[in-house]
Amino acid sequence: MEASITDLGVASVRGQGAANKFAVNGWELLPLQQFQYGDLRIELADTTLIVETESAGGITNLVKYWPLLRSGTLAKRLVILHVYMLSSNADYIAHRKLWSFLVDRMTEDLAANGIGRPEGWDAQLITYHVGGSVGEVTDLLRKTVMGSEDL
Questions:
Q1: Tell me: the pLDDT tens digits for 25-83?
Q2: Among 18, 32, 12, 50, CA closest to 2
Q3: Which domains does the chain have, with CATH numbers?
Q4: Which residue in 42, 113, 110, 109 sits closest to 79, CA to CA?
């Protein structure tokens, strides 16, 4: 996925190094205990774009952004693209439904605290099949990076 945007001249950060971590105010986490900003983070003028890739279930890659968003400390809009690789349409269906349920709860809570969706943040779950194309993901990345940030 990262290769799909290299020709656009944007910098990206990935991995578990200190440059790709965030703390939550008041949690007093040591640097090694802080959260990783996704598998790929792209900093744009008005948006931080996070790509989380998952071939198994789990909602930690989504929920970790909730307290960060709620803190009100972000200067830019946060967009999370969570990509799941599937072998069949039924793969991880319970996890994907839980992910959607969590996005709805986050949306309600954050809106009640003045952080609207999609203005202040957004989250999208994207699936593709094993051996299939990740074209939808790379198209979204390119669209966002090129300035059409209406995800």
A1: 999 999 889 998 888 888 888 889 998 887 665 688 899 999 999 999 999 999 998 88
A2: 12
A3: 2-145 (3.40.1350)
A4: 42
Mean pLDDT of 121-143: 75
Distance from C-alpha of 84 to C-alpha of 88, rounded to nearest angstrom? 11
Closest CA to 43 of 4, 82, 14: 14
CA 81 – CA 77 distance, rounded (Å): 13
Q: How many angstroms from the chain centroid is the CA of residue 56? A: 16
Q: What is the pLDDT of residue 151?
A: 47
Distance CA 127, CA 137 (A): 9
Q: Can you name the residues that pair with 129 across neighbouring β-strands?
A: 86
All residues at 6 or more sequence positions from 26 whose CB lies less than 8 Å from its CB, including other chains: none
How far is Cα 40 from Cα 51, in angstroms, rounded to an integer? 5
Task: Please report, as a single letter, which amino acid is at residue 19.
Answer: A
Quick one: tokens of 1? 């996925």
148 pLDDT higher than 60: no
Residue type, 23: A
